[in-house]
Design goal:
Blueprint lengths: L6 H16 L3 H5 L2 E8 L2 H4 L7 E3 L1 H14 L6 E8 L2 E7 L5 E8 L5 E8 L3
Parallel strand pairs: 1-6
Antiparallel strand pairs: 1-2, 3-4, 4-5, 5-6
Length: 123
């Protein structure tokens, strides 16, 4: 049975996630994640990481996102909205290039992100 979280807590997590990225503070971003978290994105293989599109564990996340931050000096997310369920939050935002993205973040009982998925428009 999944842990149920208060909608306000999950919404706050989504806002904190955006703030941490906008501060370009990778270690702050990583504090939001469980040690065994996994992330899936179509950008992962393009950046030279796992061909499956999924990286697992904080060390892999640190390597992937560290490389991405180095390539995106103007990175900035403008929060559009957050959507919550009992065990997840979807952060809907626009990046510095005007692309709209939905980031699905599932959390564990401790409120740490265990699974993330970046969802982009198909075009």
């Amino acid at each position: 049975m999944p842990q149920h979280h208060q909608p306000s807590e999950l919404a706050a997590l989504g806002r904190t996630w955006v703030e941490a990225w906008n501060a370009r503070d990778l270690e702050r971003v990583l504090t939001l994640y469980d040690d065994d978290a996994e992330m899936t994105s179509d950008r992962i293989p393009v950046m030279g990481f796992d061909a499956s599109g999924t990286v697992r564990g904080k060390n892999a996340l640190r390597a992937y996102w560290g490389k991405a931050l180095g390539l995106l000096p103007d990175l900035h997310f403008s929060l559009i909205d957050v959507f919550v369920s009992p065990d997840s939050v979807v952060v809907f935002y626009e990046n510095e290039r005007g692309k709209r993205i939905c980031e699905y973040l599932r959390v564990n009982a401790a409120g740490l992100i265990v699974q993330g998925s970046a969802n982009h428009l198909p075009h």
